[in-house]
């Protein structure tokens, strides 16, 4: 594996905006707060196994309705304190009043966390149900971007959708929402998972045409279990593309062969994205490191 165009981030250093702008490609990893002690052990094993790759940043998700609020803050704080990695915390509008959101943002600031990924979040009733704002809360991610930016020197990221958000009237309307997030102060975006390079490149074209010039990092989900990925795609109102399903499903009954095919598919997608102009790659790790490390090793990165 080449030690190519990724960044070595000094302890506690920098904003995600500045790190992406440093040149070369950004590589980042996403984790979720574990539910129990066994999960905590697994999370920290994955973090330590990925740390030698010197990611640009690592992010920690925020449970539905703020259910993992304290654990998200705690894990993000611990990453900042105990590792060489730059942490980014997530924050959603769901289940919080404006005052509660201010409190969470203050906790991040007190922990020295300068990078926040801001999301509206799924409706309280689950994906696909009507959106209802929390009393005294916010309705749009744009409002949350403005709130975070008003409370300190945060670098704020937002979500982007290669196939359009499930509630968007059209792809063009969807990218106008991204433009409003940028205008509110967002400095970079991370996409939800997708499997076709053309969907990402189409998003880039629409975004640039709409005046969106912030970096847009593609979100990569390694396929190691086809049923699991199908369920996750359904939650965002998507289907895994037929050509991807066929490549992986022909090995059903042989978990190792399914996994190998999934890694191959993801590795090809990553190479095509980087060749197509993506500023980097953001891996949804599901708190495991092996698949991400294998894809990273497969990438033919130029030596810097």
Write structural notes for this entry.
- This protein has helices at 16-20, 37-50, 69-82, 98-110, 141-150, 171-184, 197-209, 226-235, 242-249, 255-275, 290-298; strands spanning 26-31, 57-60, 87-92, 115-119, 155-160, 188-193, 216-220, 280-284.
- The chain is of the alpha/beta class and 304 residues long.
- It has a single domain (16-223, 278-298), classed as TIM Barrel (Alpha-Beta Barrel), CATH 3.20.20.
- The chain has an eight-stranded parallel β-barrel, surrounded by six helices.
- It starts with 15 loop residues before the first helix and ends in a 6-residue tail after the last helix.
- The model is unreliable at 1-12 (pLDDT under 50).
How would you sum up this structure in a few lines?
Helix content is 43%, strand content 14%. The chain is of the alpha/beta class and 304 residues long. Helix 2 links the parallel strand 1 and strand 2.
């Amino acid at each position: 594996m080449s030690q190519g165009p990724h960044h070595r981030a000094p302890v506690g250093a920098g904003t995600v905006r500045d790190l992406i702008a440093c040149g070369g490609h950004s590589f980042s990893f996403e984790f979720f707060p574990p539910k129990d002690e066994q999960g905590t052990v697994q999370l920290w094993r994955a973090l330590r196994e990925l740390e030698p790759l010197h990611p640009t940043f690592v992010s920690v998700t925020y449970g539905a309705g703020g259910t993992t609020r304290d654990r998200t803050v705690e894990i993000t704080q611990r990453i900042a304190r105990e590792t060489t990695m730059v942490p980014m915390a997530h924050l959603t509008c769901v289940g919080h009043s404006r005052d509660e959101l201010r409190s969470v943002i203050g906790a991040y600031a007190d922990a020295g966390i300068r990078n926040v990924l801001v999301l509206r979040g799924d409706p309280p009733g689950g994906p696909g149900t009507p959106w209802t704002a929390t009393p005294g809360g916010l309705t749009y991610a744009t409002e949350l971007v403005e709130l975070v930016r008003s409370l300190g020197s945060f670098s704020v990221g937002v979500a982007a959708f290669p196939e359009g958000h499930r509630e968007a009237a059209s792809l063009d309307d969807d990218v106008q929402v991204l433009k409003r997030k940028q205008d509110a102060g967002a400095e970079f975006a991370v996409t939800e998972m997708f499997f076709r390079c053309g969907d990402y490149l189409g998003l880039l074209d629409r975004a640039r045409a709409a005046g969106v010039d912030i970096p847009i990092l593609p979100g990569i989900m390694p396929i190691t279990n086809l049923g699991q990925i199908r369920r996750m795609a359904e939650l965002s109102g998507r289907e895994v593309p037929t050509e991807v399903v066929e490549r992986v499903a022909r090995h059903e009954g042989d978990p190792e062969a399914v996994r190998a095919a999934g890694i191959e598919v993801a590795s090809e997608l990553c190479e095509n994205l980087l060749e197509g102009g993506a500023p980097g790659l953001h891996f949804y790790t599901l708190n495991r490191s092996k698949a991400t490390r294998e894809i990273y090793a497969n990438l033919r990165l130029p030596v810097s």
